[in-house]
Amino acid sequence: xxxxxxxxxxxxxxxxxxxxxxxxxxxxxxxxxxxxxxxxxxxxxxxxxxxxxxxxxxxxxxxxxxxxxxxxxxxxxxxxxxxxxxxxxxxxxxxxxxxxxxxxxxxxxxxxxxxxxxxxxxxxxxxxxxxxxxxxxxxxxxxxxxxxxxxxxxxxxxxxxxxxxxxxxxxxxxxxxxxxxxxxxxxxxxxxxxxxxxxxxxxxxxxxxxxxxxxxxxxxxxxxxxxxxxxxxxxxxxxxxxxxxxxxxxxxxxxxxxxxxxxxxxxxxxxxxxxxxxxxxxxxxxxxxxxxxxxxxxxxxxxxxxxxxxxxxxxxxxxxxxxxxx
Length: 326
Hints:
Elements: H1 5-8, E1 15-20, H2 27-42, E2 47-50, H3 57-65, E3 69-71, E4 82-85, H4 92-100, E5 104-107, H5 111-125, E6 129-133, H6 139-145, E7 152-155, H7 158-161, E8 172-176, H8 182-195, H9 209-222, E9 227-231, H10 237-248, E10 253-256, H11 264-267, E11 272-277, H12 283-296, E12 299-304
Parallel strand pairs: 1-11, 1-12, 2-3, 2-4, 4-5, 6-7, 6-8, 9-10, 9-11
Helix pairs in contact: 9-10
């Protein structure tokens, strides 16, 4: 009698989309966006924002469609207007110019960025030269460097850590940008410590909880997927670091910020695709990109990992003083 070969053939595993947890907006981004939304509700005059409120192209475009005006510098804002500082922080010089122009300022700086500023100021007051680990052209770095000019230097790489010059090698402290790669930053700080054994560090890591949690989630996701899509804009540091984390873990990854950016060739032969989002990327973009992939293949969508506890930062006090008269 002939054997039933059909019954012996193993079933092909279903194709899956795994949604990383945690992903997307962090408390600092939530706070900044809520500030602008609140101002749109209560303020009749134009609302200006210095730089992008958060580094996400779609979020900025939606606010522009509602009348928010984004400017590069304070000098671009008419005197006496309402100005919001972005989540990335600003230097004292920017505050001074805003005051000179009699601007009504609402500061949306993330409290965790403000923490780094305060650390740098304290270290400088203690007579230490401060080294800032970060990316030269990032808005957050510009604000931190501006807090203590002449008493702070920037280090971007391990190679720079090996050559950076300081006034007194025995009196050096380090702070970091909040959205860096955990692993890369650790290597840089280890290199600095080899050169400066007395290096002073903050009591708690400067890389924010959201950055750390999302990077750890991507590392776990990379172990069980064929491809990872990171939802985020090109100028989002934390989104770029997520893509790098996936690649370093051995899984191909692409950074995209709209459904149309999904290349059908990427997903054609993949059976497990991970999706995550940078801390400045809204969940509606994640869902739109998932819908795009569902159009390209028969996938089951599953959650992966644990959601992080809800964290809420209080709004700035100045927001309560805004009147609807403009």
